[in-house]
Amino acid sequence: MMGAKEKKKELPKAIDSRLSIGEQELLCELARHVSPEHIIVEIANKTSESTEALARGAQSSGGRVFNLTLYGKGDSTNKTTNGDSDAKLHDSIRETESMTSVTILDGSVYDLTRRWKEIVGLLVVIGYQHYEEVREAVVCWQECLPPDVVVVVHNCCEPGPARAVKELIADCGNFVTWRVVDNLTVLVADKCQHYWVINTNEIGSCRHCGRKRNFKRLAREATSLGVKKRTTRRMAI
Fold first, then answer.
1. pTM of the model
2. Which residues share a beta bridge with 185?
3. Cystine design at 64: which of 101, 105, 120, 222 (Cβ 3.0–4.6 Å)?
4. Model confidence over 167-177: pLDDT tens digits?
């Protein structure tokens, strides 16, 4: 005898990664001003419009764009492949690719960042909707970011990216909001030369600007990230 009908599992809402004209123009403008000594990293989940906009902007300064798709959690078994979407992405940037170098990669965020050698002048996180994905993407790449880096987060109307951005400009980050265009939020590094006064709860307060910093949580995240990187390294050997 069958029991009561099981409640149908609700599927996660698909994220709309299409860009408005204003968002595409913003990405093109930001890429245009990246120093040729730095590179542009786009964590885009194969969003071709954003890649094309960045490539068009980078071509005027001879910049290079890296389009990355992350497996997440350091586990290559999470990889999903779609030959049609790969082909469409290559086709969409084919004309621009003749003028600027666009490299398409995929892999674990931990594996990619531990092997990265170049300085990232513009970091774009687009096409992801979960808090953990967005925050880990920015935190993992911080070692590659210069003081004048620009970080762009897409879909900040969704709870996940919105929460990640809120923390990046609050006590767990070192960024301030510079511009907002439609669903794109542009962050730049906080320029204050902080003088931290830290209390017994490991919460710091800057004497100059009043910004607070949760050093306990940041230390915990750094330790966790180090463990994940070491685990990924062992798995790759």
1. 0.73
2. 153, 180
3. 101
4. 888 876 789 99
